[in-house]
Each structure stands twice: as structure tokens, then as C-alpha cells.
Design a protein that fits this description.
Elements (H helix, E strand, L loop, with lengths): L17 H16 L10 H26 L1 H8 L3 H26 L4 H19 L5 H19 L2 H8 L2 H33 L9 H14 L19 H9 L2 H33 L8 H31 L5 H23 L6 H14 L1 H11 L6 H17 L2 H17 L8 H29 L3 H34 L1
Length: 501
């Protein structure tokens, strides 16, 4: 393969020419030959570490969407409309994204085990304390504190997996890790609705995950492995300044384009996850002869979310692993096609909700499976197109952009559009809207997510033009950094030998 067109990757290790370049090429080929390509090579402790990360990711997303499962009860409790209900999730995501860059910087330089343990402890305590708050504004503040705690975990966890594994094994482990997102989200709806129904108080749904979170703190602090940065790739690269990190990321076209595409994914998932159960309940409630409770809808919606994750995340990882060897641009292509398939499926599901019982669930399941194809693949791409010592910063940067322009505003935006449409359809106050007008307003507002999916699909397709080149830059930068390190070590040894003579 011709490497002459590869430009230097901004770092404290400069790419070299001539014999050094030949040495780096040979070293790169040797590294690739030593890669572990099957799960049988993974140690028990590495499995334990990934299992702990998946467990925390599972309860992380359970906590995020517990409220969505009891949203109608929350609205009644605080006497708020769709806009203020959507703001609860927006406050959470804003805190989450604002603090992500700080944890990304710390995660590239300090103990990731300590940072994660402290963060999980924070969101566990604030979730539990927030369940006793009776004032809406203070409740929103506690949701923001939960977001800060979760930011410490989400920015760092994928980088630990990247430092333990490479190649095909890394892709499989990331699929396992991101598999917990839709499953955890589904459990969130179920736990929120079931626990609230059993206790007769929706607040008990918020008191389940803190118990699991306490166990997670112990596992992270005492059992989880915290490898050296770049350990799996035998990288000797050192952290650069934060300014250099950000400049390198902004100049990385694959990273920026995939981040914009993932922002569209975050916008859609944030809006649908928050408003999906309420929207389906309003539609089914309009059908004659259908008698279904809000708790039942949340339970079914949670089951669909889990099932789509069970199907979509592994399918995306399998397609990526099967196709990328023969077609190096397969990863962004799969993500792009997935979004372009999901958009019409979601639109059909929304259109049919008022008229059919099963059809909306079927089409939304298809749409969510296609949407879930991207989770593990996007994470894998974001890691292999960024050098090891700036991967936590890259994860944090991607979280900041995708949430700032994505799900930080989408639940609130959909709520605002819905409230505005209620007033327009009813010809007066939003509170005067009939059940049919409430459904129609939320339906029209949610159609925006289908358009955003198409935009995200286009961004992923554009990424295919750059992904191969940017991955080659990182592989070569790692290899050449090791050549420099080996030469420096050899030179120091030689000088010591000479001085000792």
C-alpha cells in the first residue's frame, strides 16, 4: 500500500522518512501479525473488566430513562406541560456534556479507576437524594448533578477497552459494551413503570439504580483493570497539550464528520426515548376498543427497545467485522445506510399509531434495529482514527458536540413544538387541546426526527471518503513513535557503555 500521501498526525512524535520510515513500516506489520483475533486469547481479568464496564453502562442508561417510563406521573406531580417535562432531560444532558471535556482531559492523564469510582458514586447519591425532592426546580438541579456523575464514566470507559484490545477483539468488546445502552434504556422504562406501579409512587422507580450503583462503585474501585494508555497497541506515545489535542481532532475529517453524524443519532434517540411511550399511549388511547394503561405502554416500549438492541448492536458489529476486511470503508457505510433505513420505518410507525395496534410497534422495532447498527461501530471508528494518548479527550469532545447539538435540546425542542401545535390546533390554550389534538401535535413534532436521521446518514456516507486514510495515519504514528523510542533507548544505552569504558 502506498503510504506516501500520509501526512503527519499532530503529536509530540514526528513522523520520519528514509530508513526510519522503513523501520516503522516493518514494526507496523509485525504489530498487526501479533494481534489477538479471537476471544479465546482474552484473559479472565480482562473479561471481568469489560463485564464491570458493561454493568455500569447498563445501570447508567437505566437511570437516564427511568423517568421517561413514568413521564405522565411526573407531569401530574409537578403540574407541568410537555415543554417543562422535556426540560428535565435537557438539564441532565447539558450538565453531562459540559463536564465531559473536563473528565476527558483528566482521563488522558490521571487514574481512570479513581475518576470513574468518584463519578459513579456521585450520580448514585444524587439519583437517590433527588427521588425525595418535591420542588420541580430542585428536582431539575438534581438531574443535572446526575449528569455530571455520568459524564465521568461515559468519557473514560471506551478508552479502557481500547487500551486492552485491538482489531477484531476490540470491535467485539465494544459491541458488548454498547449492547448495554438499548438494553439498559429498555430496563429503565420497565423499572420506572413497574416499581412505580407496585409502590403506588413513581419516585420508587428512581430508587432502584442507586442500589446497583453502590455495587458498581466497589467493583470499579477494587476489581476493574486500568491499563496503560495504548497498552494493547504497545504505544509509547505521550500526552500532548490540550490545545494540540483539540487542534488535531478538529483537523481530523473522519472524526469530525462521524461526530456530526452521531450528533444526529443522539438527537433522534434522545427525542424518541423521552417522548416515545407517551406518544404511543396517546395514539392507542384514541383507537376504539383499546384499553391500555400508561404503565403497560412503557413496559412494551421498553421491551421493544431492549429487543432492538439485542438485534441491532450485535448485527452492526458482525457486519462491520465481516465487511471491513474486504471493504475498508464499510464502517461508516453501514452506519449511513442504517440511518437511511431507520427514517422511513420510524415515519411509518408514527403514522400508523392512531389506526393500528401492532403495526406501529413492528415498524418502530425495525427503525430502532437499523438505528442501533451504529453504536459499536461509531465507537470503534472514533478510537482507531485517534492516537491513544488523546482518546479520552476525543470521547469527551464527541460527547460535548453530539449532546450539545443533539439530545441536550431535542426532548425540550420536541416538547416546545408540541405545545405550540396544541395551541394552534385547539385555537386557544394548550391545556384546552383534546386528546386527538395532543396526539397530533406530538406526532407532527416527532416527524422532525426522521429528517434528522437522513441528515446523519449523509454525514456518515461522506465519512467513507476519509476513514481509510485517517486510520493509516494513526497506525503509522504509533509505529514510528515506537521506532523513535527504541532508537532513543538504544542511544542512551550506547552512551552509558561508552562512558563506562
Amino acid at each position: 500500500m502506498d503510504q506516501s500521501g500520509i501526512t503527519p498526525n499532530t503529536s509530540n512524535q514526528q513522523l520520519v522518512n528514509g530508513s526510519d520510515n522503513d523501520s516503522a513500516t516493518a514494526l507496523l506489520q509485525e504489530k498487526q501479525a501479533r494481534r489477538r483475533e479471537n476471544l479465546g486469547d482474552v484473559s479472565f481479568r480482562e473479561y471481568m473488566t469489560v463485564g464491570i464496564l458493561c454493568f455500569v453502562n447498563l445501570i447508567n442508561y437505566m437511570d437516564r430513562f427511568t423517568i421517561a417510563g413514568v413521564l405522565s406521573d411526573v407531569k401530574t406531580e409537578f403540574n407541568i406541560g410537555d415543554d417543562w417535562a422535556g426540560l428535565l432531560q435537557t438539564v441532565f444532558v447539558i450538565a453531562y456534556m459540559v463536564f465531559a471535556p473536563m473528565f476527558g482531559y483528566l482521563g488522558d492523564r490521571y487514574s481512570r479507576r479513581k475518576i470513574m469510582a468518584a463519578g459513579v458514586a456521585l450520580w448514585t447519591m444524587t439519583t437517590f437524594a433527588g427521588s425525595y425532592v418535591t420542588n420541580y426546580y430542585w428536582f431539575a438541579v438534581f438531574r443535572g448533578l446526575v449528569g455530571i456523575g455520568e459524564a465521568s464514566y461515559s468519557t473514560i470507559a471506551p478508552t479502557i477497552i481500547s487500551d486492552l484490545f485491538v482489531g477484531n477483539v476490540r470491535s467485539k468488546m465494544l459491541a458488548f459494551f454498547y449492547f448495554a445502552i438499548p438494553v439498559g434504556s429498555g430496563f429503565g422504562y420497565i423499572v420506572g413503570s413497574v416499581a412505580g406501579a407496585i409502590a403506588g409512587d413513581w419516585r420508587w422507580g428512581l430508587r432502584v439504580t442507586p442500589v446497583l450503583g453502590a455495587a458498581a462503585v466497589v467493583l470499579v474501585a477494587c476489581v476493574m483493570q486500568d491499563p496503560e494508555r495504548g497498552q494493547a497497541e504497545e504505544s509509547t506515545m505521550k500526552p500532548t497539550s490540550y490545545g494540540d489535542d483539540l487542534r488535531a481532532l478538529v483537523r481530523n475529517p473522519s472524526f469530525m464528520l462521524s461526530t456530526l453524524a452521531f450528533t444526529c443519532v443522539a438527537f433522534v434517540t434522545g427525542a424518541l426515548a423521552w417522548w416515545g411511550p407517551l406518544f404511543i399511549f396517546l395514539g392507542l388511547d384514541l383507537q376504539p376498543g383499546v384499553n391500555i394503561s400508561k404503565e403497560r405502554v412503557s413496559l412494551v416500549f421498553g421491551g421493544i427497545t431492549m429487543a432492538s438492541g439485542l438485534a441491532g448492536v450485535p448485527l452492526g458489529a458482525w457486519l462491520g467485522a465481516a465487511l471491513v476486511r474486504r471493504f475498508p470503508r464499510a464502517h461508516p457505510l453501514i452506519c449511513g445506510v442504517g440511518l437511511l433505513v431507520s427514517a422511513p420505518a420510524m415515519a411509518l410507525g408514527m403514522l400508523l399509531t392512531q389506526y393500528y395496534f401492532y403495526a406501529p410497534f413492528v415498524f418502530m422495532f425495525i427503525g430502532e434495529v437499523a438505528l442501533n447498527l451504529n453504536w459499536a461501530i461509531v465507537a470503534d471508528m472514533s478510537l482507531y482514527i485517534v492516537i491513544p494518548p488523546r482518546r479520552s479527550t476525543a470521547e469527551a469532545f464527541q460527547i460535548l458536540i453530539s449532546h450539545m447539538l443533539g439530545d441536550a435540546g431535542s426532548p425540550y425542542l420536541i416538547g416546545v413544538i408540541s405545545e405550540s401545535l396544541k395551541r394552534s390546533l385547539s385555537g386557544g390554550a394548550a391545556e384546552a387541546a383534546s386528546r386527538s389534538q395532543q396526539f397530533r401535535a406530538l406526532q407532527y413534532a416527532l416527524f422532525l426526527t426522521c429528517f434528522v436521521e437522513v441528515v446523519g446518514g449523509v454525514f456518515f456516507l461522506i465519512t467513507t471518503n476519509y476513514i481509510v486514510r485517517d486510520k493509516q495515519k494513526v497506525d503509522r504514528a504509533i509505529a514510528e513513535a515506537e521506532v523513535h523510542s527504541s532508537e532513543a533507548s538504544h542511544s542512551q544505552t550506547h552512551e552509558k557503555n561508552v562512558s563506562g569504558e
